[in-house]
Specification:
24% helix, 21% strand, alpha/beta, six-stranded antiparallel β-sheet
């Protein structure tokens, strides 16, 4: 009987732990209520906005149907060279705009997601239990597959089903949420305890709006423009209407973060579909040929060029950039891709298998190994989902999308050129390091926020700031932190920006450099003792696309990014640093929330103690404070 009671208690405790870690209906309702306050529209106004989205999609469909009628030999969707192509739109010049799909355990190991699992270094069991991710792709998911059964649901009114799109969606979904399965242990998904809501690609904006409005956090989109011969050159690196639409959705739902594949057209023209290369209706001279005239740069297009998404590039198994992963920057100089994960040789579930008679047959036990940013993006998205769940399990709240993005970018492993670059972005996702920043975070005004139960001192400062920083380019918001000296001091700011002005060929031509930012913040880190300032990274733009990133020489000297970072490689242990944030005069005067993340910090120690606290001291060795100092600093009166 005693054993039985112990067992029942253990089961109850397990159920409590899982439910405490997961996103509940009540938590989603709270987020939805916050969105209602943020967007206090009448029911008729919300309906009008929804109808506007639907009308745009209906107009696209009319253009496509007219084009197909004019070219009866063309197919709306087809497969070529392992990628699925879908006729998305027709541009103002009458050229077809195709999108194509962007073709696990090893991937999870590279980004260290396994450290959140049972037995990992964080000492928790975070696998995505009861969390939901949205998956938009081409085709249908194989919901009965042994890796996915009970974990995925194809949503209603999703009619797109043909050729290899089914394989692609099933593979991508398995990379994210494929469950533990003994016979295919290498195919386990990264958030293998989570579930997926699956959608086909048409009407994605309207469906994403509805998904985000319900309080969900993460979605994955392993598709984008085909970057083929008929695609107008101005679209490469452009902030077009697709990017603008997605930024508008993210602005309306600031907890929502879409992940987008960077695409795979960089290596050679052999990756382009031969069905497309020889279409007679394409204008001569428009063939981009992998953009090799620009050395592989300027290849980010469509939704991947949005400001408020995470654009994901692909690495090989040795952390080298893959031969296919597209490079940035955007025309206005923003860093793309944002982050990279492994995308080469990824094994996951497949919809079909080819039988001995060379016939493709649907299967619940089929697996395939593939390459592509398609499989890098869901790894990053699943990592983001795990971090949201972990933050809630530790701090009983979820992160804004800008905060999650800043944590992921600010803790990424720098690869390639020093600092941000147009190949690796801000580096390789490191879920373990991001989780440690979450675990050891302190926050403004929290007297108990400086120590944790295992006796280590705080190693990160995370704050979601809602106060309206004046846009006079003089007044600074200041947060003081103390450096541990054990690692670089990295200060990041990020914000979900409003949608910027749409870029078209008519209003900008090819590669215009006009910034698409609406709100613009900047950050400087000052050594309080020496008054020496360190400024944010200044990423290279198209004009110097192969150069290393430099540093800003003045406020707002960067290149239009809504994520900015200051990195001090060798901070002085125990030294106080001031984190200074300004808003530019060009920004709207209205408030724009932003997130501040600083890693490499410690609890303030008394001057008499010379030891460097690197997370190894006990609680008795630490001095309790009431949180980092918070003040306003007016540069106009301080002689700065």
């Amino acid at each position: 009987m005693y054993t039985k009671h112990l067992l029942l208690s253990a089961i109850a405790l397990f159920i409590f732990m899982v439910s405490a870690q997961a996103q509940t209906a009540e938590e989603r309702a709270k987020i939805v209520a916050e969105y209602a306050k943020l967007n206090p529209q009448s029911k008729s106004a919300r309906l009008a906005a929804e109808n506007s989205l639907k009308k745009k999609e209906a107009d696209v469909e009319l253009r496509v149907q007219a084009y197909l009628k004019k070219h009866p030999t063309l197919k709306r969707m087809f497969e070529s060279n392992g990628s699925v192509y879908y006729l998305k739109d027709v541009d103002v010049n009458g050229n077809p705009v195709y999108i194509n799909t962007k073709s696990n355990v090893e991937s999870g190991l590279m980004i260290k997601a396994n450290q959140l699992y049972s037995g990992g270094t964080l000492g928790v069991n975070i696998t995505g239990q009861n969390m939901v991710v949205g998956v938009w792709d081409l085709g249908q998911v194989r919901a009965t597959h042994e890796l996915l059964s009970g974990r995925v649901t194809m949503q209603g009114n999703q009619s797109q089903s043909s050729v290899g799109g089914n394989d692609h969606m099933t593979h991508v979904t398995g990379t994210m949420v494929g469950k533990e399965f003994a016979n295919q242990s290498s195919a386990r998904g990264i958030a293998y305890g989570a579930t997926a809501f699956n959608y086909d690609q048409p009407n994605d904006a309207t469906e994403m709006d509805a998904f985000a409005a319900l309080g969900y956090f993460i979605s994955n989109h392993s598709y984008g423009y085909g970057n083929h011969e008929g695609q107008s050159l101005w679209t490469f690196g452009a902030y077009d209407n697709q990017a603008q639409n997605w930024d508008r959705i993210a602005r309306n739902y600031p907890n929502y973060l879409p992940f987008v594949a960077a695409a795979n057209e960089r290596d050679t023209s052999s990756r382009l579909a031969p069905d497309l290369v020889n279409f007679p209706q394409y204008p001569n001279g428009r063939y981009n040929n992998g953009n090799r005239l620009k050395g592989g740069y300027d290849m980010i297009t469509g939704i991947a060029s949005a400001k408020n998404v995470m654009t994901v590039g692909a690495l090989d198994a040795d952390k080298a950039i893959s031969s296919y992963s597209n490079w940035g920057p955007t025309d206005d100089g923003r860093v793309k891709p944002d982050i990279v994960t492994r995308g080469t040789a990824i094994t996951s579930s497949y919809f079909n298998y080819t039988n001995p008679s060379n016939v493709s047959v649907a299967s619940d036990t089929s697996y395939s190994t593939g390459d592509g940013t398609s499989f890098a993006s869901p790894a990053a998205a699943a990592g983001g989902l795990l971090l949201q769940q972990y933050h809630n399990s530790v701090h009983q709240s979820y992160l804004k999308a800008a905060t999650l993005k800043a944590i992921m970018l600010g803790t990424a492993e720098d690869l390639g050129q020093t600092g941000p670059d147009n190949k690796f972005g801000w580096g390789l996702l490191n879920v373990e390091k991001a989780a440690r920043a979450i675990k050891y975070k302190s926050a403004a005004g929290s007297p108990t926020a400086q120590t944790v139960t295992d006796g280590t001192s705080k190693g990160a400062y995370i704050e979601e700031i809602t106060y309206n920083v004046p846009n006079d380019n003089l007044t600074e918001l200041v947060r003081n932190v103390t450096a541990s000296g054990c690692e670089p001091l990295i200060a990041s700011i990020a914000w979900t920006d409003d949608e910027g002005p749409e870029q078209t060929e008519a209003n900008g031509g090819i590669d215009p450099t006009t910034s698409r930012l609406v709100h613009n913040f900047d950050v400087v880190v000052r050594n309080i003792t020496t008054s020496v300032d360190v400024r944010a990274w200044k990423p290279s733009i198209m004009a110097n696309r192969t150069a290393d990133a430099t540093f800003e020489t003045d406020w707002f000297d960067g290149n239009g990014n809504n994520y900015k970072q200051v990195k001090i490689n060798n901070p002085v242990a125990g030294q106080q640093y001031a984190i200074l944030v300004r808003k530019s005069t060009a920004s709207p005067a209205t408030a724009k929330p932003f997130s501040l993340i600083v890693t490499g910090t410690q609890l303030t120690a008394p001057t008499a103690i010379a030891q460097n606290f690197c997370g190894s001291k006990t609680v008795a060795d630490l001095v309790t404070t009431s949180g980092e100092n918070i003040k306003w600093y007016d540069a106009a009166t301080a002689g700065n």
